[in-house]
Design goal:
Radius of gyration: 15 Å
Helix content: 25-40%
Strand order of the largest sheet: 1-2-3
Number of helices: 3
Largest sheet: 3 strands, antiparallel
Length: about 100
């Protein structure tokens, strides 16, 4: 799926904000963008549509995605992250955010 200009601008904005910690860069992956400092991926900008749609109509616990301490947050393992993270498993924390 092609990346929209709005998404490109947002990724550039995030990377620019983080330059104070070092040479942060973005790399397209997982249908979004991984955020890297040198070889360490520490962030992910992605549209988690399948999970987002499910969580719009129900709670994370109903899908078996809720955390032990905070049932309002969902935790999703990123598929096939090993080729990008040198074997480290990527777990994404997903929270509902009310629109302004």
């Amino acid at each position: 799926m092609p990346v929209s200009n709005q998404e490109k601008e947002f990724v550039t904005y995030v990377v620019d904000l983080m330059q104070s910690i070092g040479p942060v860069r973005a790399k397209a992956m997982f249908g979004g963008h991984g955020i890297f400092l040198e070889r360490l991926m520490f962030g992910l900008i992605a549209a988690l549509l399948s999970h987002s749609n499910a969580l719009r109509v129900s709670e994370p616990e109903e899908w078996g995605l809720a955390g032990k301490e905070n049932k309002t947050k969902a935790y999703v393992q990123c598929l096939d992250a090993a080729s990008y993270t040198d074997g480290v498993t990527a777990i994404l924390e997903v929270s509902k955010v009310d629109a302004p």
